[in-house]
Amino acid sequence: MKKIIGFIGKQASGKTTAANSLSEDVPVVVMGDCVRKETRNRGYPLTEKNIGKVANELREKNGMDAIAQLAIPEIKEKDSEVVAIDGIRGKAEIDAYREEFGEKFVSIAILATKKTRFDRTKQRERSDDATTWDSFIEKDKREENWGLDEAIREADHQIKNETNLSDFKKKVNDLVSEIDG
User: Per the domain annotation, does 176 fall within a domain?
Assistant: First the structure.
């Protein structure tokens, strides 16, 4: 593996879009899938509350890098020059990836305003999205408690996602090409 590109950001900032905008040859490991799998294994419906509860419990029991530790074996399995990670939510996760992959790991924070992000959650209608402003703010606070703001501040690169989809994807691909180059 040549590069591990980790996308960091708050809910609906554009992490998934960024990861999926890379070449179809770039596999994407979705950290949220690890939590959704554990939520299903516990017999809970995939709601924002249940997924948040399980994510908190995993971190309380196994440390703040618990989700990264679940994702690392999947990342290692990928036979590719570049692997993208969608969904980094804390500094401890970045630290785990840096420890595991060293200089091969590069972090990119995706930034968008609260209003933009909330509007996106209403448009995409995922089962684990916060559907009211209050639940949206509550989810932001929960993720901030995981060290998300610190992870964003310490990212190797940042991309603002407030323009159109085409421009955003171009910014992501230009940056990744520069990193990979």
Answer: no
